[in-house]
Design brief:
With 303 residues, the chain is of the alpha+beta class. The chain has 2 domains: 185 residues, Beta-Lactamase, CATH 3.30.450.20; 102 residues, Arc Repressor Mutant, subunit A. Helix content is 50%, strand content 17%. The chain is built from 13 helices and 8 strands. The strands form 2 sheets. Strands 4-3-7-6-5 form a 5-stranded antiparallel sheet, sandwiched between helices. The protein has a 3-stranded antiparallel sheet with strand order 1-2-8. The chain is globular and about 65 Å long. It starts with 8 loop residues before the first strand and ends in a 9-residue tail after the last helix. The relative contact order is 0.10.
């Protein structure tokens, strides 16, 4: 009897934010589905975590196209590519629907945000294909004249989906994602103890919180909570608490622009402003004076 490979996990990727922690579980079925899509259409497809980390892709050996590789490396536009990706991920997440667009280099890309139980768990993206026969003049003008011929060839080598077929192509793509979700090829595994612990730390950021108080609130032993912080968040309880306090201190400073550094330190349970300064430098790699002034938080009398 043939064994169903999509019943076995091929990837378990931790995703954490300030208020949540969960594992994104991607089965082998996703890899096979993506491989078939890329083989048939020649278009790269990949699944990304909510913060843009690539988790799975079709034909993993197929990397970025020559056009994108040379654009990033030869023309130094890697930052533009990353910024564009982040911008459209945010737009797709806000719209909660398939989003098709031309990237900053004129290539077509399509994003589908993936929600499970109302939670954004990632994005599926197809990209590096073209819907125009020749390199757009607007993009050609941004390329040095001596390199335009090469980039025109790189562009021609990209998969071509004519505009008249685009809607059908996107419908096939979105139905593939619907099938992937319906078959539970992408799921999440909550780390509920950590989520509860993080919520507790945020709610008590202005208090002297200890690991024993968090353990008591979670109904777990101190050793269990300590282990989970290290295993799930990849950082200690003490470090997590410190980062949350700094995050809340910055919010407090925004809401209270006349507050001095000494006031902020006292409000969040630091021994004094020097203890707060040491903690701030540890988290933000700059002094609180520099960091808060940069964000127009600091009172003019502070140094």
């Amino acid at each position: 009897m043939q064994m169903r490979t999509d019943m076995y996990f091929s990837a378990m990727v931790l995703y954490t934010s300030s208020m949540t922690a969960f594992e994104i579980i991607v089965t082998d079925g996703v890899k096979h589905l993506f491989n078939d899509f890329t083989t048939f259409f020649g278009v790269r497809i990949a699944f990304f975590s909510p913060d843009g980390k690539e988790i799975a892709s079709g034909l993993a050996s197929r990397t970025s196209s020559a056009f994108c590789t040379h654009l990033r490396n030869d023309l130094g536009r890697d930052a533009d590519c990353r910024s564009c990706d982040a911008k459209w991920r945010a737009i797709a997440a806000r719209r909660k629907t398939v989003t098709a667009y031309h990237c900053h280099a004129g290539l077509m890309e399509v994003l589908v945000p993936v929600f499970i139980r109302g939670r954004l768990v990632g994005f599926v993206m197809i990209g590096q294909f073209r819907d125009r026969e020749t390199l757009p003049q607007s993009e050609a003008r941004s390329i040095p004249a001596k390199k335009r011929g090469a980039f025109a060839r790189y562009y021609q080598a990209l998969p071509y989906i004519p505009k008249i077929k685009m809607q059908s192509f996107i419908r096939i793509f979105t139905r593939l994602i619907d099938a992937m979700i319906a078959r539970n090829m992408v799921t999440v595994k909550d780390n509920l103890v950590i989520e509860d612990a993080l919520a507790y730390l945020h709610a008590h950021a202005r208090e002297s919180v200890t690991i024993s108080s968090v353990a008591a609130a979670a109904g777990k032993s101190e050793s269990t909570v300590s282990h989970l912080f290290t295993a799930v968040l990849r950082k200690s309880f003490r470090r997590t608490l410190l980062e949350i306090k700094i995050e809340h201190a910055e919010h407090y400073a925004r809401e209270n622009p006349s507050a001095s550094i000494s006031d902020i330190a006292e409000a969040f349970g630091f021994y004094d402003q020097f203890h707060f300064a040491k903690a701030y430098r540890s988290c933000r790699h700059m002094t609180p004076s520099a960091g808060l002034r940069k964000n127009q938080f600091i009172d003019k009398n502070d140094v």
